[in-house]
Amino acid sequence: MIKEIVVNSSESQTRVAITEDSNLADFFVDHPEKRRMVGDIYLGKVARVLPGIRAAFVDIGMKHDAFLHFSDIGDRLEGLQGMLDDDDDVDADDDDSAEPGEQKAKPVHARPQIEKEGSIPKLHKGQEIIIQIIKEPVKDKGVRVTSSISIPGRFCVLLPFDYKIGISKKIHDFKERRRLRKLARGVLPEDCGLIIRTAAKDQPEEALALDLKYLSRTWKEIQEKVKNSTPPALLYQDLSTTISVIRDLYTPDISRVFIDSKKMLKEIRDYVELIQPELIEKIELYKEKEPIFEAFRIEQQIKQLMGRRVHLPSGGHIVIEHTEAMTVVDVNSGRYAKSKEQEQNSLKTDLEAAREIVRQLRLRDIGGLVVVDFIDLEDDKNRKKVFDELKKEFRKDRAKIAMLPMTEFGLMQITRQRIRENIVQSLYEECPYCMGTGLLTKKSNMIYDIENVIKRMKIEKKARKLTLHVHPSLGSKLKEGTISKLTRLQFKYFVRLKLDEDEKLNPQKFDVLVTKSGENITEEFS
């Protein structure tokens, strides 16, 4: 399989595509005005504690307070108290994550633990706390945060005040896991834990030591900022989306990296030279006149990505719908060859749909609850085949996945880790006219609403002259016909109606004003 990273940089945004044999596998958009926030670390102040929902809200200087669920509060008092106080050291538990036959890590010094009443941490309003963003804000919800800090590098992730060493599950070789764990113990700073990333496989000790040195220096800088800051304060800003993609996904199995901007090329090359110099030779500037995303057939695939309907190889298709609570995917079949082959044709379509659904969830970065309505299958073995196919395909996904087996009705429930806005939300804004519903009120309905306002007003105020402030499209509807609807309303209610058409007005709204005083009576009599 040929894997490539293609970077398209413009004044308004940077787009990063990862392709596998020319097929779009991952897609990221980096907006300068909408910076990625996941990974940022703040010194915040507890604004409210709500034991009823097992959460606290933390002021970090944003429009909405950050949401801190009690399950996201570590057992140890990360950061503030640990950094500023000289408390007695307490031995922590030994590292129980050692491989069979290995010696366990030596005990390290622990920081004070958060006091708890039962399972509820003792947080109080006004308390200063260090937190890290783990989920981007969605609509009217603020960011979600954790008090368990982690600082990612190229080969490892530093975990201040968390003492276990973890290794990526994607590193299967026992000897390599043991080697990496041994290396980690040799270079790990006191009072920190570590996660060894997949990219660390087969890397020399020097590479891991340099990566960890960089992370340790970053953590020391954060500690210094805490001592000199007043909440709310930003302590650490993670890399941009583009550079974080290079950090996390530019692995030796990537064949080439193509970039169409000299400025972005320099930025990426400088970063790669710092983290893994041997990979620089694969990075090159795209110099052709044809736009880079069109040359690599990515633009066409992105347009398909944005649609509701996605076609399958055998003639079927899936339809993806977003609701407030979940994403719903409907699987539809193509034409059946013969009725007796219906079960096999249904299975074939469902298997194709399973592969495409996983791909679409990754590409669109859809998180939360996903309900899939597969084509009904009579045989339990066939239902299991679809479940197993989904399970196999989800192994390619970096997000955490949980799913339940298919029901008798062909429904399958999936939850996918939600970290940021999905791609559709990132690229599109909600329509101010339909408010995201895709439906507009019919003109006849709006005229009915205008008539109701006039009718109610006549009962209570008995004004004789009114002005209708409307968009020209509604004005045309009111004026059409030999005897217009505007004229009919005037005769019916014995009022004089003046039409004031305004191109700037929302086509889905209107205002009814008393002509003499200019008073807007729309809401009062709606």
What is the topological layout?
Blueprint: E1 3-9, E2 14-20, E3 23-30, E4 41-50, E5 55-59, E6 66-69, H1 80-84, E7 90-91, E8 109-110, E9 116-117, E10 120-121, E11 128-135, E12 144-146, E13 151-152, E14 156-160, E15 165-167, H2 174-187, E16 192-196, H3 205-227, E17 233-236, H4 241-249, E18 254-259, H5 262-275, E19 283-285, H6 292-295, H7 298-306, E20 309-311, E21 317-322, E22 327-332, H8 342-364, E23 368-373, H9 380-394, E24 401-403, E25 411-416, H10 423-427, H11 443-460, E26 465-470, H12 472-479, H13 485-493, E27 496-501, E28 510-514, H14 522-525
Parallel strand pairs: 1-18, 15-16, 18-19, 22-23, 26-27
Antiparallel strand pairs: 1-2, 2-3, 4-5, 4-11, 4-17, 5-6, 7-8, 9-10, 11-12, 13-14, 14-16, 20-21, 21-22, 23-25, 24-25, 26-28
Helix pairs in contact: 2-3, 8-9
Walk me through the structure.
With 526 residues, the protein is α+β, with helices and mostly antiparallel strands. It has four domains: 3-34 and 242-298, ATPase, nucleotide binding domain (Nucleotidyltransferase, domain 5, 2-Layer Sandwich); 41-237, no CATH class; 307-427, Aminopeptidase; 443-525, 2-Layer Sandwich (hypothetical protein PF0899 fold), CATH 3.30.2320. Helices cover 30% and strands 26% of the residues. It contains 14 helices and 28 strands. Strands 4, 5, 6, 11, 12 and 17 form a six-stranded antiparallel sheet that branches. Strands 20-21-22-23-25-24 form a six-stranded mixed sheet, with helices on one face. Strands 3-2-1-18-19 form a five-stranded mixed sheet, with helices on both faces. Strand 5 (55-59) and strand 6 form a beta hairpin. Helix 2 crosses helix 3 and helix 8 runs parallel beside helix 9 (380-394).
